[in-house]
Amino acid sequence: MGLTSHSTGIRAMDSQFDIQKQHAEDKVIALAGNPNVGKSTIFNSLTGMKQHTGNWPGKTVASAQGRYEAHGQSYVLVDLPGTYSLMAHSVEEEIARNFLCFGEPDVAVVVCDASCLERNLNLVLQTIEIASRTVLCINLMDEAEKKGIRISPDVLSQRLGIPVVTTIARKKTSLNALTDAVWRASQVSDSWKSPVTYPKPIEEAISLLLPFLQEKTGSRLNPRWLALRLLDSDASLAEELTACLGHSFLENSRLKSALTQTSNLLARYDIDSDTFRDMVTSSFILRAEELCKETVIYERPVYQFRDWKLDRILTGRLLGYPAMILLLAFLLWLTIAGANYPSQALSAILFWFQDRLTELFHFLHAPSWLHDLLVLGVYRVVAWVVAVMLPPMAIFFPLFTLLEDIGYLPRLAYNLDKPFQCCQACGKQALCMAMGFGCNAAGVTGCRIIDSPRERLLAILTNSFVPCNGRFPTLIALITVFFTGISAGFKASFLSALLLTLILLLGIGMTFVVTWALSVTLLRGIPSAFTLELPPYRKPQVGSVLVRSVFDRTLFVLGRAVAVAVPAGFLIWFMANISVNGTSLLQGCASLLDPPARLMGLDGVILIAFVLGFPANEIVMPIIFMAYLAQGSLIDPGSPAAMKLLLLSHGWTLQTAVSMILFSLFHWPCSTTLLTIHKETGSLRWTVIAALLPTSVGVLLCILFTGICRLLSL
Fold it and tell me: Which helix (H) or strand (E) element contains residue 68?
C-alpha cells in the first residue's frame, strides 16, 4: 500500500510524553535503532514535512514526531533517540526505554543496519522483551549487497517471532513493506515474547518473582522483563513504575520478600551486581550471534577495500591529522571565496531596501529621530548581521552537513578521541566542537550527545574557544587587510584560508588546554568509555543535506541572531547619538576603557565595540568604524584599502591587529550562546564561568603578547 504525509494541523494530546495526536484512533509507532542505521531517513521519508520537533519533557534530548497514513489509518511516528541498548546507562537509553514501556506505543519498529546486523540485534532483542508488538526493519540492504552480505528475513522472522522486512530507506517505495508490516502488527493482540534464555541462576531468580508480577502488572508490562530489571536494582525505573503500577508497588511486602529470596539465591551462586549485568549482556550477545549464524551469509569480507583505503588516510596515525587540517582549510577557503560576492549582493539589496524605508518615513512625515532610530539604528544593524552571516552560513552549514552525511564526522571524533581522553574528557566533544565553528549555541546544544554530566559540562564550558561563524568576518577582515594583502583573487583567498586555519588550530589547542585544566580542578573525574561506530562511506543525499542545513541550522541560527540584533540596534544608536558635555556616550565609554585596553594592545574603541557586540559578533568591526568616524549609525568603510587607511590613521599597527585577532578568538560568548548555556546547564554559576573562561584567556594572551612586543621594541 502507498503512504501519504498529512498536511493538517497538529494538536497536542495531554501525556507525560506529549504525543502529538489529532484523533484518538491514531496509532502511535515508536521508531528505535542504533545511530547511523538510516532511522532518520526512514522517519523523514514517511512523514515528509509534517513533523514536530522539541525536547522530551524534562530532558534536553531532542524529540521528533511526525504523521503518515497507510491502509486508511493515521499514524504518529515517534523518533526515539539513537541508542545501542535499553539498559538506561545514558539519558538517551532511559528515554527510549521509558517510552517503549510507559508511552504505550501500538507498535515498536527497530531499524537495523544490514551490513552489521549482529551488533544491531542486541537492541532488537531488548525491545522485543519490552514491547508486545515489534517490527524489525533491516535497512541499508544496498550497502549489504555491495559487501556481499545476504540475509534471510523469513528465517529471522521465524526465530524472533516478529515481522521482519528489508528496506533501502533512500528509495521511498521500499518502505511500503514496512508500512504493511506495521499495519498488520497493530491489528494483533498483545503477546509478550522471550527471545533470550538467561543462565540457570538468573532464570531461577526470575521464576521467584513472576507469580507476583504477573498478578500485579496485567498487560501493562512484560513481567519477565520487569523481573530482570528488579533483579538489576534499576533505580532509574522507580519513578515510572510508581506512576504506572501504583505508589505501593515497590513497597509491597510480598515483592520485598521475593526480592530477598532472589538476593539469597544469587549470592549462593556468587553473583554480584556487576556479574549479573555481565551475564545478562552476554546472553544478548550470544543470542544475536546465534541468530546471525542461521540467517546471514557473508560471501566476501565485510570491510570494503574502498573504505579501508580511505580510512588509512582519514583515520591513520600519520595522515589522519594532516588530512583533517587540510579538509578544514579547504572548507574555510570555500566559505571565504564563495561568500564574498553573495554577501556584497545581499548587502546591496538590504541597503537598497533601507533607502526605500527612508523614502517611506519622509512620505509619512515621521520625525527624523524616529527614522534614525528605526532605520539607521535597528534596521541597519539587522541588515548588517543578515548580510554578513547568511552567505557564510549558507555555505559552511551545508558543507558541514555533507561531511556528516558522507560519514566523516564520526571519524573526526575517532581522531580526536585520544587527545580528549588525555584531557580526561569524552571524544564526542570533538563533534560538538566542530558544530561550534558554525555556531557556538548550536555546539552547546550538540553537547547533549555526551552521556556523562561531567564531560557534557566540560564540552559546554569550552565550546566558545573555537570561533563561530559570527567571528569569521572580523578575523577574515583583519587577515586580509594586514597580512594577505588587499588584492582579490585565488592567492589572497587561499592565504586567508590558510591563516584562518592556523587561528582555528590555536582555538582547538586552547580547548584541549582549558579542558584539561578544568578536569584536574573544578570538574575532576575519570573519562568514560563510549561506543563509536564508523559507518560506511555513503553517497550524500544532496537535497536532504540542503533542507536540513538551511532550515534546521542556517535559518534557525540566523533567526536567533536577528532577534538579539534588534535591541542591540536600539542601544548602539542611543549611545552614538546621546551626548554629555559634547561627548557621545559611545566615545565616553571608549575613553573609560582606554587604559585597560592599551594594556592589551588595543584601544578603548575596540574594547567598547566588543562590549556592544555582545548580542552579535558580526557588528564589532562596524561599531569600530562608526566610533572612529564619529558617525551616528553603523557604516561600511568601503574597500579593504579604505579600511586599512582608516585603521592606520587611528594608530593601528601589526601588533594591534594580532591583539585584535587574539581577543576576537578568545572573549565572552555572544548573548545567544550564553542563553543556550544557561538553558542547558540550568545554572547561573556555570553560565558566568563559561563567559569568564575565554575572556580570561584572551585578556592574558593579549597582555602577554603586548608585553613581549614592547620588551623587544617591536
Answer: strand 62-70
